[in-house]
Amino acid sequence: MLEVRDLHAYYGESHVLQGISFNVARGEVVTLIGRNGAGKTTTLKSVIGDIADRRGKIRFDGVDIAALPPERIAARGVGYVPEDRGIFATLSVIENLTISSLRGPDAWPLAEVFALFPALKARLHQRAARLSGGEQQMLAIARPLVMGSRFLLLDEPTEGLAPVIVELIGNVLRQLKERALTILLVEQNLRFASSIADRHYLMVNGRIAKMLKNSEIATEEAELREFLGV
Ligand SMILES: Nc1ncnc2c1ncn2[C@@H]1O[C@H](COP(=O)(O)OP(=O)(O)O)[C@@H](O)[C@H]1O
Ligand SMILES: [Mg+2]
What pTM does this model have? Predict the structure, then answer.
């Protein structure tokens, strides 16, 4: 579904992604792991067209999207949930879900979104700023579903959340996988990552150092923790 080949990204003089290649097959959940500054967020931003200076091949569903503007990439079904969640704090839950006019062919009806996130239905007219951290994350994940994303890029969705909420988010991601969504997840929490993902790419200093099958996480955990600095 997503195929990235020899991707380079720059912030001014700074050469941040130094030729990374990876792929995500339809229906897979794949993580990018690596310590702070490794280039994980830059990788997601490159895919959605939010990094001006990037080179390399990015194919989505067989189409070269590297030259497309972000809104055209989103319209093809690529949804992005940034680390800061990207929701509108002063708008209500329902306004956050309906403010974008983008409705792809796979857009979820609101009823289905609320079946997955009952907590959001109970807070329909509450401002996003007044939701708990977990509810905000759910709203952030709900937005691309309403727009019709088939492929989700999630940047550290469990960061700062209590363990019980992390588990809830894990359940949501498993349900999305069952519903044939494809997910590329940036994650620092190895245990969480291995509880939902099929494969993992370890990023070190702007490169992909290693690809691991999920079954390899347990056997290489000590080495990985050293790489991750956790
Ligand atoms: N807007 C920016 N301008 C300049 N440098 C940046 C910017 N964003 C990130 N960087 C640098 O790029 C590198 C990779 O950052 P990032 O992709 O955010 O890493 P990660 O998400 O793995 O923590 C880091 O060295 C970071 O300091
Ligand atoms: Mg990051």
Answer: 0.96
